[in-house]
Amino acid sequence: MTPSQRLAELKLVLPNVAAPVGSYVPAVRTGSLILSSGQLPFRDGKVVYTGKIPTEVAVPQAAEAAQIAALNALAACARTAGGIDRIVRVIRLCVYVNSAPDFTEQPQVANGASDLLARIFGDAGRHARSALGAAALPLNAAVEVELAVEAA
After folding, report:
1. What pTM was estimated for this model as a whole?
2. 3-state secondary structure (DSSP) of residue 81
3. Which of the listed CATH numbers 3.40.1180.10, 3.30.420.40, 2.60.40.150, 3.30.1330.40 matches domain 3-151?
């Protein structure tokens, strides 16, 4: 099954790529490697989840925010690749979590993005990963996601 077929099966649609809010591009390609810029949990032009984890946003909602941000990063990579079906595998995922000072469950938040990529790409969606706590993120977003993929 292709990634586009899995997206349809999951009832997911790649969103439009968010316009950059600074001096950068959403994704860049060098050879077969595509790197996304950091993507926030934007839906319909608005950041869906804002605030510190877990004091303002609970872990399950932060994991959902990570899924949304990962879908946005995937959209940027897919556009750069010429379509999602040209993405061969997910190489690396980095999830930044807007963390309260004593919060240490960043991996549980990042699982939202990791699990989504595995559902879309199967074994090719399994990836190296970092899950980091951040003192603050742009627009007070709950998470920010960066993605590296290999494309045909």
Report:
1. 0.96
2. helix
3. 3.30.1330.40
- What distances in angstroms separate CA 127 from CA 7, 57, 99, 118, one per listed residue? 18, 26, 23, 9
Average pLDDT, the chain: 97
CA pair distance 24, 78, nearest whole angstrom: 17
Q: Indicate the DSSP class of residue 48.
A: S
Which ranges of the chain would DSSP assign to H, the alpha helix? 3-9, 59-81, 106-121
The model's pLDDT over 97-132, given as tens digits with 9 standing for 90+, comes to 999 999 999 999 999 999 999 999 999 999 999 999
The secondary structure element, H or E, covering residue 92 is strand 87-98
Question: What per-residue confidence (pLDDT) applies to 20?
Answer: 87
